[in-house]
Amino acid sequence: MRRKLVAGNWKMNGLKASLPQVEAIAAAAAAHPGVDVALGLPATLIAPAVAVAGAMPVGGQDCHANDSGAHTGNIAAPMLVEAGAKLVIVGHSERRADQGETDADVKGKAEAGHRHGLDVILCVGETLDERDAGQAEAVVTAQIAGSLPDGADGAWLSIAYEPVWAIGTGRTPTEADVAAMHGAIRAKLTDLLGTDAASKLRILYGGSVNGANAASLLACADVDGALVGGASLTADKFVPIIEAAASL
Ligand SMILES: O=C(CO)COP(=O)(O)O
Fold it and tell me: Which residues act catalytically here (predicted)?
C-alpha cells in the first residue's frame, strides 16, 4: 500500500518572513503521521526552513545533472543536500517552458538527485492544445519514457501529473480524466519497469488543488498524493489538504 504524499511547491515565492508558515505546516504534518508531507522551497529558504521543520522533509525545485562546474546560476544536488534538502522537484512544466528543459535534461536531473540520496518528484503534463487534440496520454507517456531516471525502482521517485492548463487556473480535470491519466501512467511505468517496481512509485496529481477539491482528487484511482502550488504557501490553505489526505 502506497502512503499518500502531499507536497508543496513554493515556486519563486518565500522569504524568511514565511518561515512561520513552514513551522505551522510541519506541526500539521507531525499531527498526521499517516500522511507524508514535504515542501519544495526556493534554494535560499532550504537551510532556514530545515531549522524549523522538525521531521518534515524540505527540498529544492531543480538541480543540475552535474555535481559541479561552469553553470552560472544553477544549483547542484550536493548543494541541496548540504543545505539540508531531502527531496528535489524536477521537470516542472514552468522549467520545461521557461528554461527549455527537455526530457533528457530532466532524466539527468532526476538521476543526479537520486545519486545524492534525494527523493525525486518528476513532473509531467500536457498543454491545453495537446489535450484538445486528443494527445494528452500520448504526450504524458512519452514524457515519462524520455525522462524516467535509470534505476527507478523505489519509493524515492514520485511522478507528478500536472496538466499545464490546470496550474494556477482554478481549473481541474474531471475525476474520470484524472483516474484515466493516472491509470495510463501506471501502465506505462509497468511497461518500462515491471509490475513490482512500478507499484512502488507514487503518482501525484497537481494543478489547482485546494482544500475543497483535495479529498475527491486524492480519492481517484491511482492518485497517491498531490503536488500543490498556490495553496501550499500558507498553513491555513495547505493544512486542509493534509487533513483531506489523512481522512482517506
Ligand atoms: O504547479 C503546481 C505545483 O507544482 C500547481 O500549482 P497550483 O496548485 O498553484 O495550480
Answer: 92 (electrophile), 162 (proton acceptor)
Mean pLDDT confidence for 222-247: 98
Q: What's the CATH number where 173 sits? A: 3.20.20.70
Ligand 1 nearest-atom number relative to CA 167: 10
| Domain annotation covers residue 237 | no
pLDDT per residue over 80-96, tens digit each?
999 999 999 999 999 99
Active-site residue (options: 92, 114, 116, 182): 92
Which structural domain range is residue 209 located in?
Answer: 5-232+242-246
116 is catalytic: no
Q: Which of 114, 116, 162, 182 is catalytic?
A: 162
Q: pLDDT for 162-219, tens place per residue? A: 999 999 999 999 999 999 999 999 999 999 999 999 999 999 999 999 999 999 999 9
Q: Is the pLDDT reported for residue 154 higher than 90?
A: no
What is the SS3 assignment for the chain?
CCCCEEEEECCCCCCHHHHHHHHHHHHHHHHCCCCEEEEECCHHHHHHHHCCCCCCCEEECCCECCCCCCCCCCCEHHHHHHHCCCEEEECCHHHHHHCCCCHHHHHHHHHHHHHCCCEEEEEECCCHHHHHCCCHHHHHHHHHHHHCCCCCCCCCEEEEECCHHHCCCCCCCCHHHHHHHHHHHHHHHHHHHCHHHHHHCEEEEECCCCCCCHHHHHCCCCCCEEEECHHHCCHHHHHHHHHHHHCC
Number of domains in the chain: 1
Q: Which of 167, 208, 237 to mutate to test the pocket of ligand 1 (most atoms within 8 A of CB)?
A: 167
Q: What ipTM is given for this predicted complex?
A: 0.99
